[in-house]
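Reminder to self: tokens first, then the designed residues, so the page reads top to bottom the way the pipeline ran.
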């Protein structure tokens, strides 16, 4: 994977092959950040990266100047890799090793941007639990956005607080906002 823009532009990060991840493609990531760039100043936002995996999305935010980034993943190998990479590049990334749903049920953390990249094989109920918990626990700051990455074969448009979706190849980003 590579960082697309910012301080660490074009840097390649090689994740261990044994991590249980499916990193967001460069094309999809670049498109997502083009959208976000029109709405947010990256140095003024806080980011919560759920199902963080390799930390791919968090590195992109850090490279663009975001100072408050929290990654949540249940896999120790992923958390260890994110910590190592963040330290190597001196990125302001905090990690939490936890099941994402347990974290969402108990957390009081509020963020401008919450990005979730759960396994594509989740059933619709599991996908729906993400925005349900985020909005129930008031985790999204005013004018913030929850973005869920999923397969183009999954339709999240009937979920509460759904705003719109964007499709990039086989990847889809669904956006959720405060009503």
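Designed residues (179 positions):
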């Amino acid at each position: 994977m590579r960082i697309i823009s910012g301080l660490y532009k074009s840097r390649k990060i090689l994740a261990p092959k044994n991590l249980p991840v499916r990193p967001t493609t460069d094309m999809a990531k670049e498109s997502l950040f083009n959208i976000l760039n029109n709405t947010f100043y990256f140095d003024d936002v806080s980011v919560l990266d759920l199902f963080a995996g390799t930390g791919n999305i968090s590195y992109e935010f850090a490279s663009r100047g975001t100072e408050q980034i929290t990654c949540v993943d249940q896999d120790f190998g992923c958390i260890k890799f994110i910590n190592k990479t963040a330290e190597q590049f001196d990125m302001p990334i905090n990690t939490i090793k936890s099941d994402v749903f347990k974290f969402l049920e108990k957390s009081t953390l509020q963020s401008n941007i919450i990005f979730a990249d759960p396994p594509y094989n989740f059933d619709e109920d599991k996908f729906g639990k993400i925005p349900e918990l985020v909005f129930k626990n008031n985790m999204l700051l005013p004018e913030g956005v929850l973005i869920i990455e999923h397969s183009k074969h999954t339709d999240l448009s009937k979920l509460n607080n759904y705003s719109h979706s964007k499709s990039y190849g086989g990847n889809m980003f669904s956006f959720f906002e405060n009503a």
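The domain at 45-176 is CATH 3.40.50.150 (Rossmann fold).
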